[in-house]
Amino acid sequence: MKGTVVQFRRGNRTLTEKHFTLNFDCKNRAEAMKLIGKEVVWTSTGKEPKKISGKISSAHGNKGLVRAIFERGLPGQALTTEIEMKENSGGKK
Q1: How many domains in the chain?
Q2: Which of 13, 39, 43, 69 could form a disulfide with 89 if both were Cys (CB 3.0 to 4.6 A apart)?
């Protein structure tokens, strides 16, 4: 399943580098809750592609967005790029 990186998790004065908001085309919060616990991978573009993996931690809002925590922060160029969910990763049952 593919989605997009929407934004860093942030407040008025703070920015959390390892937390991101992702969009996987879920229609509402209930569908997004089913994705909790699944693993996601972002692959950079370039000569030597790097993979950074993370895990979906919770739903974000009522429109189907999810929050993910990555092992290390994604670069700023990751915004609005594609992200992939691992097929055999765990999830909420």
Answers
A1: 1
A2: 39
